[in-house]
Amino acid sequence: MAAAEAAPAPASPAPGAAPAGQAPLPDTASLPPGLLSELLCPITQEPMRDPVVAADGRTYERARHRSLDGAPGSGRPRSPLTNLPLANLVLLPSVTVRSLVLGLQAARLLE
């Protein structure tokens, strides 16, 4: 009998490729334009780790919510983006933005 030939070793996945059985990760060029900028705090321009939605409908980093208070003695708080008065200072967690940021960071598409 002839000796059995060794099967070739499986090819190594390309750097950045998804493990077997998982969908490949997109590169940042395949993400919709403007998506990454929407995940940055408009005040700090850094990825939001604890995003909250303010009364102006905008999402901010919670640690920066004090900037929504406005200047002392200025009356009602104002939006830092539009300078319009805010109806209140209620900050609601933005679970979706947080999930997107964490997912893109895990995929190394966002620092």
From TrEMBL:
One of its GO terms (biological process) is protein ubiquitination. InterPro entries: Ubox_domain, WD-SAM-U-box, Znf_RING/FYVE/PHD. Residues 1-31 are annotated as: Disordered. GO terms for molecular function: ubiquitin-protein transferase activity. Residues 34-111 form the U-box domain. It comes from the Eukaryota. Residues 1-26 have a biased composition (Low complexity). This is U-box domain-containing protein.
